[in-house]
Amino acid sequence: MTSSVSALKAVPANDVVFAHESEQHIAEILDMYDIEWQYEPTTFELSRRADGSLESAFSPDFYLPAFDLYVEVTTMAQKHVTKKNRKLRQLKEQYPHVNAKILYLRDYQALVSTHLPHVA
Q1: Is 16 within a domain?
Q2: Residue 96 forms part of a structural domain
């Protein structure tokens, strides 16, 4: 199994096209605290089909180099995060040296209401 890492330099949240508005908000909060981040810099292979083609992969939303931490942001209702939880579990099993966490809706809401009240 392999992971693909691309070298990215830190850029302000305003200079990145995010897949979801919640990712933009998290990047803005990280920028407020001068926490270096990279957006989707690594894709971790999780499984391949019998023919060798890629079946499943996981690209966490952020990498925080100072903490050696990958963060996946999800604003889906808790009952819909099963797939992301499964991918995180697979990631930890196959890449035990990788530190990764999921930021759930309740975590996102708490951060935004505290640090970006104009958004909440």
Answers
A1: no
A2: yes
Q: Count how many Cα atoms sit within 13 Å of the Cα of residue 33 in the half-sphere of its side chain.
A: 12
Integer CA distances (angstroms), 22 to 1, 12, 15, 116, in order: 30, 15, 15, 11
**CATH assignment of the domain containing 71:** 3.40.960
Name the pTM for this structure: 0.84
How confident is the model over 60-72, as pLDDT tens digits?
A: 999 999 999 999 9
Give counts: helices (H), strands (E), the chain: 3, 7
* CB of 41 closer than 8 Å to CB of 63: yes
Q: By the 8 A CB rule, do 110 and 120 touch? A: no
